[in-house]
Amino acid sequence: MRIRKSMLALVLFVATAALFAASPDPKALVAKVGTRSYNYKAFNDGFKAYLQYHAKGKVLTQQDSVRYNNQYWEELVGMYIYDQAIQNGKIKVTDAELEAEIKKNVPAGVKQIKDFQTNGKFDQKKYEKGLQEHPDFKKEVIGFSRDMYAYNKLLKTIKNEVTPNPDSVKADWLKKQNKAEATVIWFDYNKLKSVTVTEDETKAYYDEHKDEFKRENGKGYLLARFKGALSKSDDAETIAKDNKNKSTALYNRAKEIGLAAAAKEMDITLEESPLFNAQDEIIPLIGRAANLVSFAFANPIGAIPEIFYAPTGDILVLEIDREAKDYYIDYEIKKQEMNIRATRTKRMYTMDLFQQDFLKNCKPEDYLEEARKDSLSVVDLPEVLSDNELKPLSKIPDLNKAILDTPVGGWTPLIEKDKQWYLAKVNKRSTPDLKVWEKDKKKLLEDAKTEMQQDHLNKWYLEQRNKTEIIDNRHEFYPIRQMIKL
Questions:
Q1: CB 91 within 8 A of CB 161
Q2: DSSP state of 23
Q3: Which of 242, 347, 362, 435 fits as disulfide partner to 192, beta carbons 3.0 to 4.6 Å?
Q4: Which of 355, 466, 340, 369 is nearest to 420 (CA)?
Q5: Neighbouring-strand partners of residue 416
Q6: pTM recorded for the entire structure
Q7: DSSP category for residue 114
Q8: From CA 100, how far away is CA 144, in angstroms rounded?
């Protein structure tokens, strides 16, 4: 995050009414950063000045306005964060430092003062004499330069908190220079869309994994379901009213003689919910009903909860009718999940057999041609390092190693990960040249230092930003559609 000098010297306003909301309350809160609040007038005046500095003479599009508004906002946030760090003693700025600064980096406006020029050019000696002879002028220049100098010193101080180890930089460089280009045949079972499972295979898979679905301390409900209308038909209101009357009558009678007897008396069909336990949030065939779960485990068999109005429009009258020390989640409830898992397992098995047959019957020189004939995925990898992710594949360390261990033109051994198989041909190989390292060493170390220090500064800044109370209501006043995401 960099603070621009413009934030310290904005003095001109420009009327760009089309970019701003129409006549909001000047005192309305637009934003707040820590202890600094910005009402509409303060924020808008500052934003206009910001546009005058950065976009004077330009015709701004909606997108331009959004971009400048975001930039202005982030600089306000940044200034607060940096000011807080300085106030909290992250750095100290002495008078001697500032005197040296105003001599070394003379403000551009000062250079235009004719008293400090000789033959139309800025004269350093005249300027320094002016500083010495006019204390008030010197004080003004120091005041103007103080904030920017403090910000720059703060950023430099934070960056200098980290320095890369030269040996680590070299090791990283060597690793990055040890690379290859390769073409991979990907035996991806997900492509076997034609491989599916039958009902019997799905049930067999459930039976093989039944222990996964064993639960303890189950309870179940006996229930009468009054189905709600599925659409907003003319008689929907009548159906709903009728259901409410019948369910209320059944509920009241069930409280007297039990649900089974009351339903028989009123000729109402009953059904049973599957068993569930106290940890379940959803009761199969009923839905999400935490209150019914808690009621079931707080009351004995025969207890009747309040009438349940389901989000679907159904009305349920229920009674706790059974319990079990242990039970299995019913196959019908798990059927869809079992079908998906069984299908995946079958495709894995089928692809396993296929890759074995492929390697057995194909010659290496024919691998790529045969793979394309068989509609296998063939992926080119432009850069393989020892530990990079091989997109669009995944993180496969064994494949990286196999590729780097294989000579150009050769094929790697078959690599398997998570029932996916990979076979790679090495097309190009590069190894580190220490002569290049020695020649470019100074620049490489400097680049590594710059990157590490900038990363450290960014991390520090985001940490401070996350600690700061920030209210951003700009969308209520400006057509902000592309907010900055950090």
A1: no
A2: S
A3: 347
A4: 355
A5: 421
A6: 0.68
A7: G
A8: 14
